[in-house]
Amino acid sequence: LLCCESATAQACELLQWLADRLPNCPLLVLGHDADPVHLDLFGAGARGYCPLHAEPATMRSTMLHLLGGAYSYPPATWAAIRRRLPQATAPVDLPMPSRLLCEFLVHVAAPDTPTYPEIARRMGKSLPAVEQYRKKLFERYDIKAKGGLVLLAKRLGLV
Questions:
Q1: For a FRET experiment, which of 58, 70, 132, 136 has its CA 20 to 30 Å from that of 120?
Q2: What are the backbone angles phi and psi of residue 73, rounded to the nearest 5°?
Q3: Which residues are registered as beta bridge partners of 29?
Q4: Are 3 and 52 in contact (CB under 8 A)?
Q5: What pLDDT shows up at residue 84?
Q6: Domain range holding 119?
């Protein structure tokens, strides 16, 4: 949780620092709806936003939503993001794949761009098993090419 009373560069720096050191920790911003601070913080790595004086049940459901791997933007916040970034598209809640599929995605998105046989060797799996991982991800997330797997790994925060 990061509580922001005002838009400051320090808040963005702190959020970026937290995101760099805790890449798997979903960061939730608390603020006022009229305050534009949360828009700047999304660019710095925030995964969700909740009004500062939200009901405990709202806060809890938002936190559980983030822990489930999704993003959480209220409609008013998303509208403000769209006004500020006209090229933005609505975030899609992506379910987190299994540990094995996540490992596969990390290998697919490796900087040295390994082939599927190289990925199978690195994972200690057979090539048909790796092909099954690829097919599962293609079907589950409606992906058409290997580049889509790399983008998925980035959106899920795996790389």
A1: 70
A2: -120, 125
A3: 2, 49
A4: yes
A5: 60
A6: 99-155
Query: Residue 31: beta bridge partners?
Result: 51
> Quick check: is 53 in a domain?
yes
> Mean per-residue pLDDT for 150-156?
85
What is the model's pLDDT at position 115? 92
* Residue 90 pLDDT: 45
How many C-beta atoms lie closer than 10 Å to residue 139's C-beta? 9
Asked whether residue 45 falls in the same domain as residue 109, the answer is no
Task: For residue 117, give both structure tokens.
Answer: 């046989």
The token pair that represents 109 in the structure block: 């998105």
Q: What are phi and psi of 119, to 5 degrees?
A: -65, -45
| Cβ–Cβ under 8 Å, residues 95 and 69 | yes
Does one domain contain both 111 and 145?
yes
Domain identity same for 72 and 125: no
Question: What is the structure's pLDDT at 124?
Answer: 94
Per-residue pLDDT of 84-137, as tens digits, reads 654 444 445 677 888 899 999 999 999 888 999 999 999 999 999 999 999 999
Question: Are residue 51 and residue 107 in the same domain, yes or no?
Answer: no
